[in-house]
Design a protein that fits this description.
The structure is a homodimer of 628-residue chains.
Chain A lengths: L2 E6 L4 E6 L2 H7 L2 H12 L13 E5 L13 E6 L6 E6 L3 H7 L4 E5 L6 E6 L2 E6 L8 H12 L5 E4 L2 H4 L7 E3 L4 E3 L4 H7 L2 E7 L9 H16 L2 H20 L29 E5 L9 E4 L12 E2 L3 H8 L7 H14 L3 H16 L18 H13 L3 H5 L2 H9 L9 E2 L2 E2 L9 H9 L12 H4 L22 H19 L3 H4 L8 H12 L5 H21 L11 H5 L14 H12 L10 H6 L3 H8 L6
Parallel strand pairs in A: 1-6, 7-12
Antiparallel strand pairs in A: 1-2, 3-4, 3-6, 4-5, 7-8, 9-10, 9-12, 10-11, 13-14, 14-15, 16-17
Helix pairs in contact in A: 1-2, 2-17, 2-20, 7-19, 8-9, 9-10, 9-11, 10-12, 11-14, 15-17, 15-22, 17-20, 17-22
């Protein structure tokens, strides 16, 4: 759409600026362009919960176009969880609607004195009073705002009580709280700024340079997808169905990462476990796969509103196996509460599992937990603690700080059980089952997140669909070529998914028949460019290094490129990853070398930054060039 | 007293730990020891307004002993104004009383869920409810707490409304709001943590190793001081009386630093200006000089409670000449409001003067200022704006962010008029009148503060009393030997004043007859050590580098070692510093060399850090040592 919307909340000023070609050329869009803006506008002296922090909503060039599976939006900010670079993304329809309303991106700064929401409709922008929505859950507020605006087609991104109460892993929900931009605490930033919601509605069309090519290739891809077993499997079972497969590989964190698989009989971690509560499917913008599943639970104590969003893969792990919850209804209820309160299920589950292990080990007691028996598998305790966390009541006030800070508050050696990297609770793949995942978690600018480049798709047994990456034949337990795998997958994901705006599950995971070449084809058709694979990967590398530079500039050291000791030292006694530990130390030197990062400081070298056309970043990180 | 008190507010846990010999040996005490603790316990990912930030109240080894002028306490925290190292100090009686109560230091972390105060009495510690005091001014709360505790001898350090409302330059007041630890926003950290006050009372005695030596030398010094002209001058005129002298040198920032002196006739900036409101003197702990002056104003609109603390030197500059206020009553009222609300007068004045210049230049209008005519010299506007700032009402909500952030919120090129270094409003000596002051402001870990080592005392004309420094014969307008002057004075101040606990005005300014040797003599008598001058200076250097390392680690770059353009480029048209600019660029390379800091990055080199026995700091800042 060529336009950035800037909203300064302290004084209530709204302005527009062009989305320059410079941005598009060097960073594509999405997280890429937003990274550049965050890097330029948020220096280290600005804290995450500080009016000067930026909250950037961004879309990719394909978002909202007729390209398939191009419905994602991205949220970028300094993270209240890590203190470093933070990003999060979601599918659904909000991103596309933002573009129809006329903008590619919204940069929010300052802090409103009272709760507000931003209403963007066909190029018009208003900052409106949100006092009456404050205190509502994300779903309720979404409905109330759309109702008050008198247009059911409005799309809303909002926070629940968790964001309002500055829970450090609060999410920004959208589409009636069905989609979550969960990671890195972006919802707390929104809550701090007193922004309850951003409502968007528009009738503009995303301009497409070559409609014919887009249509022709789109049809061809649709045909391919129709007959594809993998795609159909995904349509049927959804991302959560995938969990049982990965459990066989010992990849699924269980009981706070003490095990690699979960034997919850007939629970949600089993292939058919989901079926008994599943009542239908849902889709994101322009996606033929429709991997989303709707669920219903009618019986107490886990009943909730009929036909709401069911738990996705990461949630099944984080709130399911990792907390020892096998009851599919308890898990679905926990997921629903996270959606309503606006909580990241990964960090919520990671923090709860941490507390559960502390409880089981006697490091905390009922005296600490407001009288609750916080043992693994206690579904009612999970439900109750999520509520207390979102409201910052009692022990929930400590859990609201995330596992790293909670362990520091509690003390007593509990730091050992906080499973995070750089403050971000680690996502649901175990590096003991996939070596390169450990490399990604340990070195990622945002901390322990799978969206930085999930290597399981190239490490797992069987044929992979990533032909241009030339990564066939990897052994998931070996460290061989894993630096290369992490390097390539991270760059790829940052170009295709996080910058262009495609759904990574649909098109960059190798699990479907949506081959890589279509992403570029669609991108070129939409933008009128003729970008090639190597160029695209270079841009991915640039974005990744810029994010890394932000994190380094904001204080991260070489020593923080690590994993919890448990993953490095304790192997599983059974299951598909039995006997393995993550050999991070072996991989890092090779990885740094490939990345052009200094072995002793972990900083990108001047040569690498100059090669990537980031000379000012080099000065920031390394000082002025030494004169002869 | 050998004891550190640790208060974790989130869970309400209180513990004690020993003040180790290691700390005493390497850092003496005061800011020194607190810097080490802050460096170790607050990593860059912790924001200033973050439960994990520490608020450290510290005393020096001589604080509360019979050594003369040894009544200071120090407050150290990550600063909400700069985002870097923050410290602040105050005289009075609170620090001595803390020691009588049994502690050298208090480390506060976490965040209480409701307002509390900490009550420390003879080794007993309680966290008590402070709900009823929340919303009170600092003076009122101090009185109410002492009244409720039923002991008028209790000493209280507390915050006013500014700290409660997280004004970024909120102070921590003490002794019925008569003394201010103003700089770096430590009051906002206290407010964020929901701590209204720390009340102390005790009957312990500070142990003295050699009472005889202390008494003998104390008597000798007292005799010397009695007959000393400079000391008597200070007793009579106080620090504010000194202002008129410095104005003659063109050293006194006026109208937001556009002039170096102020011709407010008969106002407070003139030698006798103070007399008409002065009604008496006050003293700090064990000080024979008693430079504090009590004032009374009975007539509206500037009336206030009789016999309260009058404005000190920095306040006369910041809220007086720099805001164009010559009316002594308006200034005294503004000072009284800052004490009640708990606002740093330097940053409050600096931020107001910034806004006034913006108003005069038409960059902001009545529309921005809630209808107020915010011109230089408008005393009523100053009074009103201080109130609005403390309460974060209207335009006060923007001023509450400090000049740097306010300029970024307002935009329109107003950044040029924000007179700060690293976010901290610059104190009231003009580097155009004293070159080395520019060096200190530009490179100081905390930003533009005079307490980092005020070089005016060695740069100003006439004989100086700093014999061991070997700095006689400096020319204040020349850059010659100014790197050396800044280097030595900073180290000296960090050892004697900020670590040992002496009043810098009394004993390290060269303005009195309290010669340097007495500081060491008293220190050795109290602690039983035999420290020599060189050793003391080395510790000062260690402390200074550790503070610097914190600031660097938290994101400061070489480029931030600078001054506002105005000081570098615009010379005064008249007055005692006419025609001069600060030649910072000439001095920095020499200064970095003396300090052992890298010319391109401004970081302390590995060699320097190892020489100072700070090897782990070297690893933090520079990565692991390269292997051969």
């Amino acid at each position: 759409m060529g336009k950035i919307l800037r909203v300064e909340l302290t004084r209530g000023r709204i302005s527009e600026e062009p989305l320059t070609d410079e941005y598009a050329k060097n960073y594509i869009g999405g997280v890429g362009t937003a990274s550049r803006i965050l890097y330029d506008e948020v220096p280290p002296w600005v804290g995450a919960l500080d009016p000067q922090n930026r909250l950037i909503f961004s879309t990719g060039p394909v978002t909202g176009s007729p390209a398939l599976c191009a419905g994602r939006h991205f949220i970028v900010s300094k993270s209240p969880l890590s203190g470093y670079f933070g990003d999060s993304s979601a599918g659904g329809f909000w991103g596309a609607e933002l573009k129809f309303a006329g903008y590619d991106m919204i940069i929010i700064h300052g802090k409103a004195q009272k709760p507000v929401y931003i209403w963007i409709h066909d190029g018009e922008v208003e900052i409106k009073d949100a006092t009456s929505y404050w205190g509502m859950g994300a779903r309720q507020a979404d409905r109330a705002i759309r109702n008050d605006l008198g247009d059911k087609s409005v799309r809303v991104a909002d926070i629940g009580q968790a964001g309002e109460n500055l829970v450090r892993y609060a999410a920004i929900m959208s589409d009636e709280a069905s989609r979550a931009a969960g990671r890195c605490g972006v919802g707390a930033v929104m809550g701090y700024k007193n922004v309850k919601a951003i409502a968007v509605r528009g009738h503009k069309k995303v301009p497409v340079a070559d409609e014919e090519a887009l249509e022709k290739n789109g049809k061809r891809l649709l045909e391919t997808l129709k007959g594809d077993t993998q795609t159909n499997w995904f349509s049927k079972h959804g991302s959560s169905g995938y969990y049982a497969m990965m459990a066989q590989l010992g990849d699924t964190p269980t009981l706070n990462w003490t095990k690699g698989y979960f034997d919850g009989k007939n629970g949600i971690t089993s292939p058919g476990g989901y079926d008994k509560i599943s009542v239908g499917h849902a889709t994101c913008y322009n996606c033929p796969i429709a991997c989303r599943r709707l669920v219903t639970v009618k019986d107490e104590p886990y009943a909730f509103e009929p036909e709401v969003e069911g738990p996705e893969y990461e949630t099944v792990g984080a709130l399911g196996s990792n907390c020892g919850i096998s009851n599919v209804k308890a898990l679905a209820k926990a997921n629903d509460l996270c959606n309503i309160y606006g909580l990241d299920t990964i960090s919520a589950g990671g923090t709860l599992a941490f507390a559960m292990e502390c409880y089981e080990r006697g490091l905390i007691s009922k005296e600490d937990t407001d009288g609750m028996e916080l043992r693994f598998g206690n579904g009612l305790a999970v439900i109750r603690m999520l509520e207390k966390t979102a409201k910052r009541e009692g022990f929930g006030n400590i859990l609201a700080e995330g596992s790293r800070r909670a362990s520091l508050i509690i003390g007593r050696g509990t730091e050992h059980y906080a499973m995070h990297v750089k403050g971000l609770e680690i996502a649901m793949h175990d590096p003991r089952a996939f070596q390169a995942m450990g490399l990604t978690y340990a070195t990622a600018p945002v901390g322990g997140d799978h969206m930085e480049g999930e290597t399981t798709f190239v490490e797992k047994p069987g044929k992979i669909t990533y032909a241009p990456l030339k990564l066939n034949g990897l052994d998931r337990f070996s460290t061989e070529r894993k630096a290369e795998a992490a390097f390539k997958v991270q760059n790829l994901w940052h170009a295709i998914g996080n910058a262009m705006g495609y759904c990574l599950l649909a098109c960059a995971t190798g699990t479907t028949a949506y081959p890589l070449k279509y992403n570029l084809m669609f991108y070129n058709a939409v933008t009128g460019q003729t970008m090639h694979f190597e160029e695209m990967m270079k841009i991915g590398e640039r974005i990744y290094n810029l994010k890394r530079a932000f994190t380094i500039k904001h204080g991260a050291t070489r020593g923080e490129d690590s994993l919890p000791e448990r993953i490095l030292m304790e192997s599983h006694a059974e299951g598909g990853s039995k006997g393995s530990v993550c050999k991070l130390g072996e991989m890092i030197p090779e990885y740094y070398k490939l990345r052009g990062w200094d072995q002793n400081t972990g900083k990108p070298t001047r040569e690498k930054l100059e090669e990537l056309n980031l000379p000012n970043v080099a000065t920031d990180l390394l000082g002025h060039k030494k004169s002869k």
